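Now for today's protein:

——
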Amino acid sequence: MFQNFYAFYQNKKLIGGCFIFFEDKYWKNDKKSIYLHTFATTPAQKGLGKQAFDLVIKFAKDFDSIRIDCMGTNEKLINIYKG
């Protein structure tokens, strides 16, 4: 239905999803990277964001980096992404 949309499941239950691209005009292409857009998880349970992102990391094992977008003013989210 949505091109480049990936849904994340754990124990056959949907926990989140995002759009994944293999190039992005806003990033300098100096590394083999994947680009995440509209990363979202089900808000019903604490920790689902980490679980979904762990699945992204497994998916991206053959890439040099994972690049994810967010509003530059969203300091809380930026700190989460930085880990």
Observations:
- The longest strand covers residues 13-21.
- The beta strands are 5-10, 13-21, 33-41, 65-68.
- DSSP finds two helices and four strands in the chain.
- The mean pLDDT is 84.
